[in-house]
Here is the input.
Amino acid sequence: MKTKITEMLGIEVPVIQGGMAWVAEHRLAAAVSKAGGLGIIGAANAPADWVRGEIRKARELTDRPFGVNVMLLSPYADEVAQAAAEEKVRVVTTGAGSPAKYMGIWKEAGIKVIPVVASVALAKRMEREGADAVIAEGTESGGHIGAATTMTLVPQVVDAVSIPVIAAGGIGDGRGFAAAFMLGAQAVQMGTRFIVAKECVCHANYKERILKARDIDSAVTGRSHGHPIRQLRNQMTREYLQKEKEGVPFEELEELAAGSLRSAVVDGDVKNGTVMAGQVAGLVKKEQTCQEILDEIMGEAAALMQGQHLP
Ligand code: TUI
Here is the structure.
């Protein structure tokens, strides 16, 4: 399928994998890119040396384009931004802030820059700063979220900017893909469905929580201090939300959450760890290869976009 995004990025299928912390390492990114989408290495809170290593390992696995997600709240954001420029990765996506100060070095390196935005205002600002496209991410997403839903945000961003828009948040199958295109998107970004990909190295317990999740199994922590994080409910979210209700200071809450995503992803502690996932987890029912995921979604979407009903 050809869209402005497949043309811009040199990919076959207009599907981008989310840059999920701890989950989106070189094996997942390479598998998504090999399957025709755009794999992303999530830099999250990692130092630049780790990111450089992952870029090089992904390059050993595939010649296809892939990207790096720079998480702007990271203490290493500056050095990771520099490393992405030096490595001349094909694409940089960003999250949790405005990447304006890095736009110059990335453009100079010939990198396509695609910030994640959660509002029309930031989308417009990013277009002015020279972004090649934006990812409009709705509040259905896992992890750090904005307030607007995908259904409302995507068409408003499409109307507000002239660069291509990629839809994210709540998209997990061909129905979501087709819906995003009806809203004016030129591609979709998916995270949660790729967590259960066979090539995803995240702990089996984490995958199982997603596979067993129901529609209303996520909770949002951190609203009280302005860093809302969507994750699946467990002992951690119950404790965290109770402490927020009691007005426990941010620093203490930070302590409670420190290292908790790693515990869930790497060690499989899905009771006390942070199990970030989108609301679409309730729709994700099987572990498949990235190729199977993309083939299935594109098959469903093709039928729907030709006006057929799915069986
Ligand atoms: O970034 C994400 N999702 C994430 S990042 C993450 S790791 C993390 N760890 C600790 C604390 C916080 C995060 C887990 N999930 N998605 C992209 C995204 N960006 N969603 C929302 C935004 C966003 C929100 C506000 C982007 C910009 C913004 O305002 C910036 C401005 O200057 O207006």
Remarks:
- The chain has 14 helices and eleven strands.
